[in-house]
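Researcher: I'm preparing a figure for a lab meeting and need a structural model of a single chain. I don't have an experimental structure, so a prediction will have to do for now. The sequence is pasted below. Please return the structure as tokens so I can convert it later.
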Amino acid sequence: MHHTSEDMLNELYTALANVKDSSDMKFILEDLCTYKEVEQMAQRIKAADLLMQGKTYAEVITATSISSATLSRVSKCVQKGHGGYKKLLIKQ
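Model: Understood. Here is the structure written out token by token.
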């Protein structure tokens, strides 16, 4: 049976949505991703949080060491995306 990329992505989303414990999520992300990839995701979430708090680009870059290009993308997602960052941050 051949699975399309969309099928596999949907399986990933469902699997991740079923994780309820942060220590389990830590192990899953460590197995799925490189340390750098996990670190970059954490950096983006922190940057989104700071942007939603009204911090300037300069303040966010100083606090997170995120690149201006990545920060621009995060900002665009915070402002016009699907609300993913807001959903992540509401639960914190």
